[in-house]
Queue: 4 jobs
Job 1
Amino acid sequence: MSVKEPLETPTHHPIPQEAFDWYDEYAHGLIDRRTFMARLTTITTASLTMGILLSGLLPNYAAADQISFNDPDIKAKYTTFPSPKGHNEGRGYLVTPANLSGKAPVVLVIHENRGLNPYVKDVARRAAKAGFIAFAPDALHPLGGYPGNDDEGRSMQGSMDRAKIEQDFIAAAAFLKNHELSSGQLGAVGFCFGGYVVNMLAAAAPDTLNAGVPFYGTPAAKEIRKNIKAPLLIQLAELDKRVNASWPEYEADLKANKNDYTMHMYAGANHGFHNDSTARYDEENAELAWKRTIDFFNKHLT
């Protein structure tokens, strides 16, 4: 089922839409940094300087700390897990509710194409604050982990074997589902590349995943989509032409397979609208999408 949000006045930014589109191309390797910067110079003005453009487009992770790492309602630590078909060992950020008694449903939180940055760690804390055991793996662990900035992290992840990264996330899903504190019910939420990984897990590990929420992620390989069993809550942004181009074919396969899915298209939103560290952030749509995510996990995992 597809659901189109009621038309609303889009969130207004001082940054022109083409700058967001160019940043998306740059962030996903379609253009290099020199081309990205050259394009930005074509829209700078006395009031819209390069500094303003970059401060809006590039992440400010201090703004993404909704739940403090020392919040009394959660406990957070790093832990490793085996990944024999991937990079042999994975590592991630495990967050549990502080008042946990017994077992609880678990949620895998999957980062974008740049490693486990502060925004995604904060999302894991938000999930734990909502009562789930959350685990956010870092695909960059074999190279020493997220380096502290997205440009370097993106370059590092791009240098790695994609198939092994996928195996690391499959291993992380199995590790979390079988964790001693897990109820055995596993959800996954991911953003951009992480959204793709959620779709991939649903198709490649159908007996592991119980519910998936891909945010603006492309689908799994066509030949394995028929394996999907888990219900999916698919979150897309109206202005995200790159990812949205893959949706009609994906939806046709989900319908043909009689999958349980709902798609929400968020009016006026850009790719990355849930990420509150950049000007692409759309607070109203992000909060609605996150509420739907938690409600979906409560429905299917508890």
Note: DSSP finds ten helices and nine strands in the chain.
Job 2
Amino acid sequence: MTAKSAAPAGPLHGVRIIDLTQYVLGPYATQTLGDLGADVIKIEEPSGDRQRGQGKAPKSQTMGPLFVALNRNKRSVAIDLKSEAGKRALQKIVRRGDVFIHNMRPEAMRRLGFSYQDVAAIKPDIIYVEAVGYGSGGAYNGRQAFDDLIQAASGACDLLPLYDGDPALRPLPSIIADKTCGLFAVIATLAALQHKARTGEGQFVEVPMLETFTGFIQAEHIWGKTYPDVPGKFGHPTTITPHRRPYKTRDGFIVVLPASREGSVKFLELGGIANAYESERFLSAADGKARVNVYYDMMREAAARHTTEEWMALCAEHHIPAMRANEMTTLFEDPHLKSVGFFEEREIAGEGRYVAMRPGLKFSKTPCSIRLDPPPIGAHTDEVLAEPN
């Protein structure tokens, strides 16, 4: 069994989520709902979630790092849905559920006997959330979808070329489509719960990855193509400039975004470059683009004058927006993250210590919390199935 804490109930306390998700999108969504206080029942095959075996764990082969990062605040029920006994077990669990969520292909759920129509026949007011790659009625409907495929189709792979000039299409180095769409699945679930609270009605909810992620990632980058009759280019100018990167300090890195020309002047002055905008190097630049390049050269030179900690103090004193740029090796030591206890060392029974990232949301009456550590396969099967209808 996993460790249980006596943490206070979150805002979704009393809501039961039946979770038939794997990979990243679904588990990220259901973990978020669990962090908010929902009782998440994770339905797994007897062999467990496929993410369990990826990466190293201290003792078992079923607690890989990504699984641990995405599956706290859940109870695991291991049943074989291809067996009649497994189907009956899930039907029993459905009768006590508020939300049924999956990210399998719809035809697979129909074959198992748990389509929306099947589940609604058991629990008419169920909220049935179906995360799919491509929306129903579209040309790609029914095709398999993974993060890289959605990044490709959404145009996200063409963003780094806009930034660095390398024409090779590349995905962003994050499972960002899955996680973004997972958050939209949370938003959709909360909206459907609100509707149910008002009317008593459940409903079918579709979360299509391509449509959802394209709207998210391209919101600013449609830019010059917003008006068909006005010539323009894709790409929001301030997000794709190659100058958009941290500056090297004497001992680390910092990002500085002066809110005004006065802020830039003060930063450059603090970095040993006085009267920057009146200097010969700035005024003698050939054109506006050249002046921009000179400005950023001066900003880099100024940044190297002090340590990161010195800059943090100076920028706070002079009201210049700035923040240290953590490297992966310094992230655990970030003063703010340490002071709020964001990284929490916990223990999985039978596995060992692990690092958890606490929920960032704060509620004055119903705080989020980590109530359950990631569960072993089927750790709660008997407990859940013994609960009354």
Note: The domain at 247-324 is CATH 3.30.1540 (formyl-coa transferase, domain 3).
Job 3
Amino acid sequence: MSETEHQHGEGPLRLLLVDDQPLLRMGFRLVLESEDGLEVVGEAGNGAEAVKLTESLRPDVVLMDVRMPVMDGIEATRRIAAAHSAARVIILTTFDLDEYAFSGLQAGASAFLLKDVAPAELVQAVRLVASGDAVVSPRVTQRLLETYVRSAGAPARGNGGTAPDPLLKDLTPRELEVLRAICEGLSNAEIAHRFFLSEATVKSHVRRILTKLHLRDRVQAVVYGYETGLIIPSNPDY
């Protein structure tokens, strides 16, 4: 469970595009393949194809639409994650406070992006997610999680509704602090500044936290924080 499973020196990042609209796939392909170090190795028009191609092509990043025929993007993401694939999934959605986007994160996606994202943001997101630093639009991700958790009534879990996850006991006090900071959407640099640590130390803390909690990446840590009641949603201010 290293922060990155792809040795970037070995060649370009391999990408799989999944959307039932060929024109949208074409647009994404044009943007991504115009960049050095990115290669689109396949396209799929539904989730079932996406699962098969992820297994055969072994992409580093899968750009996954949600609403598709045969199998939707949520189920496809769940199957890719369950297969312990090294591929990271980015959910594509039409609007930011989307219950499907949250379901995608729950299923194992590393991030979500709006379909009308600017080309430069798309490229940056792909590179970030491939590196394991999967905080894409952290404030929006946080707002999405808070919206979902509040509507689901999950905060009660943090107030004695359920026993906390026993895995949390394996974390040191410092690791618990770092986990809470990750859940706030802070970057490694921001966490280092807050706790007067070096970025290298923060990275090793993050790695240990992910390993101890059996999580794929930082976004999964954020989802975990909200689901277990470690983070209590703030009052809505939007």
Note: The chain is about 50% helix and 10% strand.
Job 4
Amino acid sequence: MTTIKQDDLIQSVADALQYISYYHPADYIQALTAAWEKEASPAARDAMAQILVNSRMCAEGHRPICQDTGMVTAILKVGMDVKWDASMSLEEMVNEGVRQGYNHPDNILRASVVSDPAGKRLNTRDNTPAVIHTRIVPGDKVEIGLAAKGGGSENKSKFTVLNPSGDLVDWVLKTVPTMGAGWCPPGMLGIGIGGSAEKAMLLAKESLMEHIDIHELMARGPQNRVEELRLELFEKVNALGIGAQGLGGLTTVLDVKILDYPTHAASLPVAMIPNCAATRHVEFTLDGSGPANLQPPSPDVWPEISLAGSAKARRVNIDTITREEIASWKPGESLLLSGKLLTGRDAAHKRIQDMLARGEPLPEGVDFNNRFIYYVGPVDPVGDEVVGPAGPTTSTRMDPFTDMMLGETGLIGMVGKAERGPAAIDSIKRHRAVYLMAVGGAAFLVSKAIRSSRMVAFEDLGMEAIREFEVEDMPVTVAVDSKGTSVHQTGPAEWKVKIGKLVD
């Protein structure tokens, strides 16, 4: 009988969460590198290059790949013959590991979990509790799978119950385009088939723990219906032309994972969950010999890449910008921003909206007139950092506030990730404003462009507070120009046609 010590489990969970915050799985790096090498879309190729450069920087600097360091999912398989040397419950041990992992002084991870989700939404400050699934299985070991799932991809989770004769492939191909680019492709699609509603969702989440092997499957050929579906969906989803960051290109998914389970004869439950470009997951086993020992990927796994796109980018001073200059920017154009911009996310926008509705002035220092806002919730800095990893958050969440911000505060530009919805695009066009896109999954790289950071307002909101960043050569792409043209509409449409012609 194996004895598992409480401290070994806690330390293993904490160490593993630190590990996945800055190390991509080697299979993901290799698959993304292969996709980058064959990518024909310049915009998508540059986005993948930024993700790969950021990945290497994070591995070397032990800092988070993405500012959204995720909500923890733990899948535990506990052997029936395991004995515990512990005073805490199993869930308490996992959550203590999360607490210690996210508050490590050398690499502080962002606390994103809020309690009272339908009410005050107060940040728990340590990213607990985790979502924990436990199974009791034969054996004398404890197998643990950990994932840290960011909100941008988790929010795109989909579920349906098809008729038993329904077309699963057709549902996936209709649904993926509705997910937009907020899940930061290229990543993986996890699909759960069967069981009940909650079982299908868990199957989809579990499938994302598996390693990328689609090309090995292509080489040997499918041996069952699930493998046939994986290959069919991999080809057809990529043929949609969505591409890296939704900019249009050859690669939208690096793999499609499927797990299934017996279901009711009258049902065909199907769940789909995307994994983003951060792709944080790790598996380890405790056998009583001590904490888990996780080995870093070999430095040779990362390609040598220089970000050549910067040399062609237009340099912009946002401190002196005018609407006339903004009007000259072209959809898809690369820019390097320098100057001061304010930050703000959901909670800050809601507070601003409420203050304006009550006729109250905005807090001192909050002046958006002729300025840009960056949708970001940064990681806390460590050492001599000005700010921790500070990549963009999903911009569509700010769509309900866009007309208010552009019409009532004098704001002229926004920086975030992924597409904007029709109402936001219409508002951008009417106000002759602009929306710029930074690459999701390149948070540490983006943070290197931030020269100073100061708190401006709403400090109680933590990572959602309003700050002022001074940036130098921050890389962005014109995603919606002042005429209302969106590259997230034109890019995928163009590449869907191009891919169709290549297939033909």
Note: The chain has 16 helices and 19 strands.
